[in-house]
Amino acid sequence: MGEKIENAVNSAALLISGFCFSGMIMSIAVNVICRYFFNLSFDWAEEIAYLFFNWAVFLGATVIFRNQEMVAIDIVVNRLPQGARRAAMIINYALILAITLALVVWGFRFAMNAWIRKSTALGISYFFYDMSIPLSSLILAGYALKYLVMTLKGEEIKQVPVEERL
Q1: Angle at CA 131, nearest 5°, toward 102 and 68?
Q2: Which residues, in sequence order, are CB contacts of 9 under 8 Å at separation 6+?
Q3: What is the pTM of this model?
Q4: Exposed end of the chain (fewer CB within 10 Å): N or C?
């Protein structure tokens, strides 16, 4: 059951982040083309790009972390003996868990404080811009907890193969 939920969350994050990335590129491209060829600029294009950027980046980070594809400088950790490497990974996942849980709390407060602030052109509450932080942090915390438990049990954490990512 847990694997099905994880796969569903990951698929949704991948779909939404991909849609938002595409939407960001299209809104910027439309605005640049219209400005260049027609001397016409859309006020809403920057706000849409900013909204989509937030969601693409934060949800995209959850997909990357789940697939174990985050950029890491692990030359030192990889040269440690197995026990020390395991201890370093436990500390790593525990820190990620603590930080992401703090980001859930902080991000939710941040988003709630932004509820009354509206974007200039579209009049959208900045709550919708900022909710990407706590939601993505909650997903990241779930993955960090999973990886921490796996590391504590001595299980190896591998990259998710490409064919299993969707």
Answers
A1: 65
A2: 62, 139, 142
A3: 0.89
A4: N
Which residues lie below 8 Å from residue 77, measured CB to CB, with a gap of 6+?
85, 88, 89
- The DSSP 8-state label assigned to residue 162 in this structure reads G
pLDDT of 47-86, one tens digit each?
A: 999 999 999 999 999 999 998 888 777 788 888 898 999 9
CA 25, 161, 14 angle in degrees (round to 5)? 30
Distance from C-alpha of 40 to C-alpha of 131, rounded to nearest angstrom: 32
Cβ–Cβ < 8 Å for 131, 111: yes
Look up the domain containing 51 and give its range: 2-164
The CA distances from residue 42 to 96, 118, 123, 125, 140, in Å, are: 40, 17, 14, 19, 35
The token duo for 24 is 């960001």
Amino acid letter, residue 127: F
